[in-house]
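G., the chain you wanted modeled:
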Amino acid sequence: MSQAPPSQRPAPIPLRTAFWYWLKLGLISFGGPAGQIAMMHSELVEKRRWISEQRFLHALNYCMLLPGPEATQLAVYIGWLLHRTPGGILAGVLFVLPSLLILSALSWIYLAWGSIPEIAGVLYGIKPAVVAIVLAAAWRIGSRTLKNTVLIGIAVAAFAAIAMLHLPFPAIVLGAALLGVIGGKYWPRYFQVGGQHPDRKTSYGPAIIDDDTPTPAHARFAWSGLVRVVLLGCALGLASWLLLAWHYGPQHALAQMDWFFTKAALLTFGGAYAVLPYVYQGAVDHFQWLSGAQMIDGLALGETTPGPLIMIVAFVGFVGAWSQAAPGAGVALAGAGGAAVATFFTFLPSFVFILAGGPLVEASRDNIRMTAPLTAISAAVVGVIVSLALFFGEHVFRLGAPAAAWDGVAIAISAAACVALFRYQVGTIKLLLACGLTGLVLSYPT
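Predicted structure as tokens:
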């Protein structure tokens, strides 16, 4: 239902007002990217009228074409549009910081007391729910992305490539991008971009940044500005790595995390679920910062915190640094440092993308040659996410080594979670609380 438009345009807001809003958003941003984007639309477009719906959706479409968490990037973009670079940095940091602090605390509790029966019981109930949540994510992304048989075929091929041929995730991304380049040139109608936004156009009245608001001076494109931001971002990342390598040595986990999590950020097309196989391959198989079971536990913890799901990297960083620290009181501090390092290198590219590429948003609109490769990648990640759900299910549902040893209780919890998500649209937090309570009850001996 359309709202009656107010009679006058809202007054520009000071940076301190934006500070309190972005902090609030960081504390309550549960529900994944769809929920976070809906929260921003409700507050910034409908109620506060900081930005018009068309400008909001245009920014969202741009963020969806980029690797990285689109909700975080959208917050950075709006903050940058309203208050220049300081506003963009403030919005992005406050969107992520509460999740980092909460997940670091949960990681410490998990490592210090995770063997306590009550905590183990809660995780026993949550992990099957995570399998259902990953399947729901595949369905949600697939229903938005797989609009024709060509894109469905790309998704199936990606599933086979990673689940059966065990190809690395970057190779799948590059292959999908190549198909998109070819398809965008010869069969463009199969590679049109579909945006994730409200279905109806609604007038909420004049906004601070409205449809007809001239582009602010800081948002006008200039090659010098783009080059300056890119160079500053690269210099900041390189200086951070040199400092870590000099202090800890290049083979230390903290020094290895920089490039690894930067690559993870650059491969995060289609959301965090799509890049989790790459994070698993690197953190568990290659660097051995944590075990496969711990990775699944980390995903379960990440689902219970606000902020982007890619924040599971904070758990990986915490456990990786904890495992290399000398035993004693300093392991918690080392773990917190690992979480901060992983988070910094994961989100740095997103800030650079927005602050450097924001002025190019208008030039990127409706350019099929640019969007077709990204559309193909989005289709491929659907198959990757399905393979991730199967991988988690195999680890969560087995009682032990024998192939026939299946955990019927865990399977039942996951099935019930699927019904709750698909049939009744239960929220993620309510589902996790219910499943965690179920696991806690079942953990007590009768």
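The CA atoms of residues 71 and 226 lie 22 Å apart.

Shout if anything looks off.
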